[in-house]
Design goal:
Layout: E1 7-12, H1 15-25, E2 30-37, E3 40-47, E4 50-56, E5 70-74, H2 78-87, E6 92-98, E7 103-109, E8 115-121
Parallel strand pairs: 1-4, 5-8
Antiparallel strand pairs: 2-3, 3-4, 6-7, 7-8
């Protein structure tokens, strides 16, 4: 699975609001968008090296319950991206701050209440390394 893509699926009753948040507020690039009818609406966004798939959940569709989840997305400059989101009307849940593991991050909520932790590496600080080998 070395060359696979990690994709998170978010089922929502308010598809338009989620599309606005991920497309207009976060300005993530649309990779695939299929909207063939009211009950068939899916949009996949590129998010760093992964993907976020927003799926309309029509009445009667089972929607997964998430508990304790956060999505993390790396950006070039957390402070600059935070300011950009604020100018687009996004409410910041926690302002950018340095973490001991070498990230500077802040938190926002998407319209469904899912927490997104957006981070960048702190220049000159050693960050997480892969020790799986």
């Amino acid at each position: 699975m070395e060359n696979g893509v990690f994709r998170v699926q978010i089922y929502t009753k308010d598809y338009e609001q989620m599309r606005h948040f991920y497309g207009t507020v976060l300005r993530l690039p649309v990779l695939v968008c299929r909207e063939t009818g009211r009950d068939d609406r899916v949009c996949v966004y590129g998010a760093a090296s992964g993907q976020i798939e927003v799926i309309y959940a029509p009445p009667g569709m089972e929607v997964p319950a998430s508990n304790g989840w956060t999505l993390q997305m790396q950006v070039e400059d957390a402070d600059r991206y935070c300011k950009q989101l604020q100018t687009r009307g996004c409410t910041i849940q926690r302002e950018p701050q340095n973490q001991f593991w070498g990230h500077r991050n802040f938190k926002v909520l998407d319209p469904s209440g899912l927490e997104l932790t957006i981070y960048s590496d702190i220049p000159g600080k050693e960050t997480e390394k892969n020790h799986a080998d």
